[in-house]
């Protein structure tokens, strides 16, 4: 009480100790804060715009002040995860600490309103204070600090508003009310996520500020990847991290999610068309390189199905970005007639070790040791059973003809890519006979052709209509429209073809995953 | 109160008002925009005939591809040379 009396009459006396928690378990004491010379404490809370103003004006100067002997500490009347997020958002570069209700530290310093700045000298004595935002008085306080440290300290720029009244300190509230304000009102967080519409229809992990913070790691949440079609919501990394949390990602997956999102927003991918089309178009993410192992991704048994957290949640995070940040939710701006299950999440890792060929990312110009994400607009998988072929020619014929009805029975040729996921046993057949990817592609391309006259029923292409009736038309416009991947369990002869997303002018986009 | 980070872009964008409607068609410069959707041109042919019969001065433009937003220079040109635009969606 003695200290409170001193404060009301002007700052003097010994600075009360801080009952706070910070980023490290080490106690934050007045002695440690002042050992470089003197200490500035800035009491703030999240809801107060004047607190935000003070942090924005003083925050960028803190690092230089610290070097010159003036330590800077923002003392929040908020949970630590909120404090960290708000401080970062406002550009505060000093220390951040948090005090729980009933805000005993704010009470010890006699706070009625925030922001409130206190200068403490090297003897632990309060020497000066400023309440609210008051640039001229803050300047005097910094000049006092400069006199104590003997160093030159930059002063905050004099710009409008020079003065702004503060807000009520939470310590000024009745303790019971303050505690009630901090208490969660959510009886069921999972249901609340549905009420907020933060879901693709499945339960999600609530994106609390601390979970999002952990997901972001070294990434700056304010960084923007661009606008997400169709509603053109801005994909800040903070929002993408929220989507990754909602999807169930672990923080170590986030670099892959960021790379996939960047690739999806590349204009060449034309996500805009894919997001609103009546087609079932999903966004297939193919992951290559060492990151597959680092994240424990599944490229083996059930590679296109359930069971692996990384595969499922990375794909889901991208879809949640499209649905929530981008507004591409089925039934609203996503007009897909049927959709497909890959629109919940569609991410596979290539089984490079089981492949007789160079992996997809090497084909696309990357080094084998690079970790790469490739985005392909894609239809749902169609399984192809072949347990009887005994020559690579027979097997290639079966695989190729399975795709003959993809997109539409008589829509020949396809110009957009068809993705074949070749299982290891099928791949082994091609390895044993030294078939390269090029040879297999060329064979498949040549195998699937029909006379134009046989393709003139129902939906077909202008090329079929203008060709001579006897002219052969291929299923694909070029062998390069056939994409070959290897994945799946070592036993079983089931490969799959994923039909194309057509008419979008959508290119395949690959990008390297930056290390976390 | 638990703090959540929203996945939505919460910015409120100003509503774009509709352009004023003309009371008559005669004398208007109307561009018919073919987005290159299958058979859209046939539909526009018929609309163009009807508009010309009402005294409109018509021109035709096409988008690069139906599934991508129109190029900005195309949009700029449409606003410069047209009193109204008819865009056809067909399949």
Descriptive account of the structure:
- The complex is a heterodimer of chains A (516) and B (91).
- With 516 residues, chain A is α+β, with helices and mostly antiparallel strands.
- Chain A is built from 20 helices and 20 strands.
- Chain A has helices at 2-8, 30-34, 49-58, 62-68, 80-89, 104-108, 135-149, 175-182, 189-196, 209-216, 237-247, 254-265, 271-276, 291-294, 309-325, 360-363, 392-402, 424-432, 437-447, 462-466, and strands at residues 38-44, 70-76, 95-98, 113-114, 116-120, 126-131, 133-134, 163-164, 167-168, 224-228, 233-236, 282-288, 347-349, 372-385, 418-422, 449-451, 472-474, 482-486, 494-500, 509-512.
- The longest helix of chain A is centred in the middle third of the chain and has 17 residues, at 309-325.
- Chain A is elongated, with a radius of gyration of 31 Å.
- Chain B has a domain at 29-88.
- A three-stranded parallel beta sheet of chain B has the order 2-1-3, sandwiched between helices.
- The chains are: A alpha+beta (516), B alpha/beta (91).
- Chains A and B meet through helix 5, helix 11 and helix 15 of A and loops of B.
Q: How much is the average pLDDT of chain B?
A: 90
Measure the end-to-end span of chain A.
Answer: 49 Å
Q: What percent strand of chain A?
A: 15-25%
Residues in helix, % of chain A: 25-40%
Query: Which structural class best describes the helix and strand composition of chain B?
Result: alpha/beta
For the CA atoms, what is the radius of gyration of chain A? 31 Å
Q: Characterize the overall form of chain A.
A: elongated
| β-strand amount of chain B | 15-25%
Order of secondary-structure elements of chain B:
EHEHE
Number of helices of chain A: 20
As residue ranges, the low-confidence spans of chain A are 1-10
Dominant shape of chain B: elongated
Measured between the Cα atoms of the first and last residue of chain B, the distance is 51 Å
- Report the major sheet of chain B: 3 strands, parallel
- Assembly type of the shown chains? heterodimer
Count the DSSP helices of chain B. 2
Arithmetic mean of pLDDT of chain A: 93
- What strand order characterises the main sheet of chain B? 2-1-3
């Amino acid at each position: 009480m003695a200290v409170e009396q001193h404060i009301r009459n002007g700052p003097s006396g010994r600075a009360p100790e801080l009952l706070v928690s910070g980023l490290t378990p080490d106690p934050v004491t007045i002695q440690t804060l002042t050992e470089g010379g003197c200490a500035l404490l800035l009491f703030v809370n999240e809801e107060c715009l004047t607190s935000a103003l003070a942090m924005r004006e003083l925050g960028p100067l803190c690092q230089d002040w610290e070097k010159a002997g003036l330590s800077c500490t923002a003392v929040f009347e908020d949970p630590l995860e909120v404090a960290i997020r708000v401080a970062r958002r406002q550009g505060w570069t000093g220390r951040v600490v948090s005090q729980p209700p009933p805000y005993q530290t704010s009470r010890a310093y006699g706070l009625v309103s925030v922001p409130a700045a206190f200068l403490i000298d090297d003897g632990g004595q309060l020497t000066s204070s400023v309440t609210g935002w008051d640039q001229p008085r803050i300047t005097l306080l910094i000049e006092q600090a400069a006199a104590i440290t003997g160093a030159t300290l930059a002063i905050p720029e004099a710009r409008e508003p020079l003065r702004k009244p503060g807000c009520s300190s939470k310590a000024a509230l009745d303790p019971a009310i303050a505690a009630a304000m901090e208490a969660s009102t959510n009886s069921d967080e999972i249901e609340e996520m549905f009420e907020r519409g933060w879901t693709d229809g499945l339960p999600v992990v609530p994106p609390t500020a601390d979970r999002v913070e952990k997901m972001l790691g070294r990434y700056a949440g304010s960084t923007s990847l661009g606008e997400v079609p169709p509603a053109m919501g801005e994909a800040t990394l903070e929002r993408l991290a929220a989507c990754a949390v909602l999807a169930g990602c672990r923080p170590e997956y986030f670099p892959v999610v960021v790379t996939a999102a960047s690739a999806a927003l590349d204009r060449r991918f034309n996500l805009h068309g894919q997001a609103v089309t009546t087609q079932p178009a999903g966004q297939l993410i193919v992951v290559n390189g060492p990151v597959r192992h680092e994240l424990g991704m599944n490229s083996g048994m059930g590679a296109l199905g359930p069971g692996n957290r990384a595969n499922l949640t990375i794909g889901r995070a991208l879809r949640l970005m499209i649905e929530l940040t981008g507004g591409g939710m089925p039934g609203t701006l996503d007009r897909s007639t049927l959709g497909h299950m890959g629109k919940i999440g569609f991410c596979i890792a290539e089984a490079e070790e089981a492949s007789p060929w160079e992996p997809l990312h090497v084909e696309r110009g990357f080094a084998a040791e690079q970790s790469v994400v490739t985005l392909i607009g894609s239809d749902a998988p169609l399984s192809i059973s072949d347990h009887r072929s005994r020559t690579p020619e027979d097997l290639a014929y079966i695989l190729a003809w399975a795709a003959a009805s993809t997109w539409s029975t008589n829509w020949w040729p396809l110009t957009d890519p068809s993705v074949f996921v070749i299982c290891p046993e099928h791949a082994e057949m091609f390895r044993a006979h030294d078939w390269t990817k090029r040879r297999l592609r060329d064979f498949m391309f040549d195998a699937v052709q029909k006379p134009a006259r046989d393709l003139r029923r129902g939906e077909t292409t202008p090329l079929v209509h203008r060709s001579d009736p006897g002219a052969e038309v291929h299923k694909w416009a070029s062998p390069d429209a056939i994409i070959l991947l290897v994945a799946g369990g070592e036993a079983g002869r089931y490969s799959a073809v994923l039909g194309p997303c057509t008419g979008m002018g959508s290119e395949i986009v690959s990008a390297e995953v930056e290390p976390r | 109160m638990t703090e959540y980070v929203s996945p939505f872009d919460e910015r409120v964008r100003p509503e774009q008002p509709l352009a004023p409607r003309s009371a008559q068609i005669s004398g208007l410069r109307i561009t018919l925009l073919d987005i290159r959707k299958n058979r859209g041109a046939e539909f526009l042919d018929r609309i163009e005939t009807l508009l010309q019969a009402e005294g409109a001065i018509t021109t035709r433009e096409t988008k690069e591809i139906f599934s991508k937003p129109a190029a900005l220079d195309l949009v700029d040109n449409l606003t410069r040379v047209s009193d109204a635009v008819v865009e056809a969606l067909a399949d």
